[in-house]
Design a protein that fits this description.
Residues 174-311 form the MoaB/Mog domain. The protein folds into 4 domains: 4-17 and 170-313, Molybdenum Cofactor Biosythetic Enzyme, Chain A (3-Layer(aba) Sandwich); 21-43 and 135-167, Molybdopterin biosynthesis moea protein, domain 2 (Alpha-Beta Complex), CATH 3.90.105; 48-130, Molybdopterin biosynthesis moeA protein, domain 3; 322-390, Beta Barrel (Beta-clip). It contains 7 helices and 26 strands. The protein has helices at residues 4-13, 151-159, 198-206, 223-232, 253-259, 294-312, 362-366, and strands spanning 21-24, 37-38, 48-49, 53-56, 65-71, 85-89, 101-104, 108-111, 114-117, 129-130, 141-143, 164-167, 172-178, 182-183, 194-195, 212-219, 238-242, 263-267, 271-272, 278-282, 285-290, 323-327, 338-346, 349-352, 369-373, 385-390. The longest helix has 19 residues, at 294-312. It binds ligand LQZAQKY5 and molybdate ion.
């Protein structure tokens, strides 16, 4: 059986990133940057006041000063300020030549044009001044390609002079649930049927990524039906199936993929839950066959589907990131497969849910972490270090 590490390296080698595209900043959120953002301007471009008050030279204190003009944001005072003079200034406005400090208006008394300092405070040079280039300088690289564009990253790109960014492509992902027992969520179910919870779960997981999702519904456990359903999704970049990935008589994903002439890249990975995962391709479409058990589908989507989408969309670092934490309770020794326990993490302390059956959804619904129990790990006590994946 393939190790998790081998499966991950095969996954990322399967297909190159999708071609990049140009988007206005308003549509860039959540996409991966395809080219670095290099500042086209310096910010601030000049020394600016950080407060409302008066610009003057600290050597001329304690005053009084004569107010000779005003500097507002976008409307600088363009003359020099001499000894004994001050300029009314507002937050974001240029600090005029001849001034090296800002007296905030709460510490000032003004009588007509005459300004005096009240209180015994000393005005320090540079106080309340944001220096030119204090945030960034023209030509400096502010964002590397492959990073996810957060609101802060979009804002720095705008301030750096960009209105349009080059971002990675948006993979098209179709979701296909297979199983005679499945009904669409919300439909009535008798004892022989269950709602397809995997379909909305996968759509919800993918919704956090830059991709376009097509829910292709539910297909019965029949070779011809599954074959037709997969054929109908071949226009997408990824087809994710759930169920029918294992070895039972009604588990048809692998035989149907073979009938369709698919290349099977790997089937069965040394992980628990999720061992029956199948990954293959038909032409340019990658098929990710997730096991049907809800927690197995969740874990394999976390470990394979989301990283694949991130990779195609241009993410520099698409694989799940393990975080260091501390066990709140003892764990059993690891076995021959890496185990991912549904867990709850708070302040780095990880507790494992007592019910870990991969068919159960209640522990998953409360989990915010997957505790990683590596292959052949020794049994561990509460207080020992452990790694986890954040899943909220
Ligand atoms: N003899 C063996 N049996 C099984 C093995 C094995 O190695 N040898 N592997 C087990 C493991 S591990 C898993 S996981 C499951 C995976 O099975 P399948 O991918 O073939 O999934 P199904 O049999 O179709 O369904 C399993 C389970 O999940 C429910 N299900 C399916 N689809 C959905 C959905 N869309 N939403 C909610 N629940 C779903 C289904 O009703 C079953 O209860 O195989 C083991 N067996
Ligand atoms: O790996 Mo299955 O996914 O144990 O339930």
């Amino acid at each position: 059986m393939l190790s998790l590490e081998e499966a991950h390296s095969q996954l990322l080698a399967m297909a190159p990133r999708l071609p990049s595209q140009h988007y206005p900043l308003s549509r860039c959120i959540g996409h991966y940057l395809a080219e670095p953002v290099v500042a086209k301007r310096t910010q601030p471009a000049a020394d600016l006041s950080a407060m409302d008050g008066y610009a003057l030279h600290s050597a001329t204190q304690p005053g009084p000063w004569r107010v000779i003009g005003e500097s507002a944001a976008g409307r600088p005072f363009n003359n020099a300020v001499g000894p004994g003079e001050a300029v009314r200034i507002f937050t974001g406005a240029h600090v005029p030549d001849g001034c090296d400090t800002v007296l905030i208006q709460e510490d000032a008394t003004r009588d007509g044009d005459i300004l005096s300092l009240h209180g015994s405070e000393t005005l320090r040079p540079s106080a309340h001044i944001r220096r030119a280039g204090g945030d960034f300088n023209k030509g400096s690289t502010l964002l590397e390609s492959g990073i996810k564009l957060t609101p802060g990253a979009v804002a720095v790109a705008a301030m750096a002079g960009y209105g349009i960014l080059s971002v990675g492509g948006r993979p098209k992902v179709s979701i296909l649930a297979s199983g005679d027992e499945l009904r669409a969520p919300g439909e009535a179910c008798d004892d022989a049927h269950i709602p397809s919870s995997n379909s909305p779960m996968l759509a919800a997981m993918l919704s956090a990524l830059p991709c376009d999702i097509e829910d292709c519904g539910i297909v019965e456990d029949q070779m011809d039906s599954l074959e037709t359903a997969i054929r109908n999704c071949l226009h997408t970049d990824i087809i994710v199936t759930t169920g029918g990935a294992s070895v039972g008589d009604h588990d048809l994903v692998e035989p149907v993929l073979r009938r369709l002439g698919a290349q099977i890249d790997f089937w069965k990975v040394a992980i628990r839950p999720g061992k029956p995962l199948i990954v293959g391709r038909i032409g340019k479409t990658i098929i990710v066959g997730l096991p049907g058990n809800p927690s197995s589908a969740y874990v394999t989507a976390t470990l394979f589907l989301l990283p694949l989408v991130r990779h195609l969309a241009g993410c520099a670092d698409p694989l799940p990131r393990y975080i260091n934490g501390t066990l709140a309770q003892a764990t059993a020794a690891g076995g021959k497969r890496v185990e991912f326990y549904r867990a709850f993490e708070e302040n780095g302390l990880i507790s494992i849910f007592s019910r870990q059956d991969s068919g159960m959804l209640t522990p998953l619904s409360k989990a915010n972490a997957l505790l990683v129990n590596p292959v052949d790990a020794p049994a561990r006590n509460a207080g020992e270090p452990a790694q986890f994946l954040r899943i909220d």
